[in-house]
Amino acid sequence: MKFKTYITKDSKLKEAIAVLGWSNNEDIYSSSEDQQVYKWSSTNREMVQVAKLPDGFIPTDLHWLTGKGSGIGTPGANAPGGSKGGESLLIAGADGRFVILNKSARIERNVAAHAGPIVTARWSPDGAGLLTAGEDGIIKIWSRSGMLRSTVVQNEGQIRCARWSPSASAIVYCQGPFVAIKPLAANSKLTKWRAHEGMVLCLSWSNNTGMIGTGGEDCRYKIWDTLGTNVYTSVADDFAITSLDFCPDGELLAIGGFNMLKLCHYTGWSHSIVRFNQQATGSLFNIAWSADSTQIATSTSTGSLLFGHIIERELRNRNLKAITTGRKTVQLQDIVARTTDTLDFSERIIKWELGYGHLVVATVHQVHIFNENYINTPIIIDGRSDIRIIMLGKKHFILVDNNSIWIYTYTGRLHLNPRFAGSQAQIPHLNGRCISLGMDSLAVRDHSDQTVIHVFDLLPGATRQEEPYTIHSKSPVVEVAVCRFGNPDDQYLVYIDANQDLYITSVHSGPEYVMHKIGTQVTTMMWSSDTNILVGLHDLSYSVWYCPGEACADPTLIALTTFTYDTSEFGKNITLENFEGANITFRSSGAIFTVSVKTYCVILHKLFAENQWERALKLCRLVQNHLLWATLAAMASKRNQLDISEEAFSASLQIDKVNYLNYIKSLPASGPEHMAENSIMNGRIQEAEIILMHNKRIPEAIRFCLRMHRWGKALEVALKHETDVELVLEERRKYLQALEREENDPQFLAVDERSDDQMDRIMWLSALWMLLIAVCVQCAATHKHSHTHTVNKERTEDGAFAPRDAHHMEDGEHFSEFDHEAILGSVKEAEEFDNLSPEESKKRLAVLVTKMDQNADGYVDRHELKAWILRSFKSLAEEEASERFEDVDLNNDESVTWDEYLQETYGMDSEDEEGVRLPFEEPRNEEERKLIQDDKEMFEAADSNANGKLDATEFVHFISPEEFPQMLPIILRQTLRDKDTNKDGRIDFQEFVGDNAKDHDKEWLVVEMDKFKEDFDKDNDGYLNGNEILSWVVPSNDEVASDEVDHLFAASDDDHDDRLSHQEIIEKYDIFVGSEATDYGDHLQNIHHFDDEL
Question: Repeats (WD): which ranges (predicted)?
Answer without folding.
Answer: 111-143, 193-225
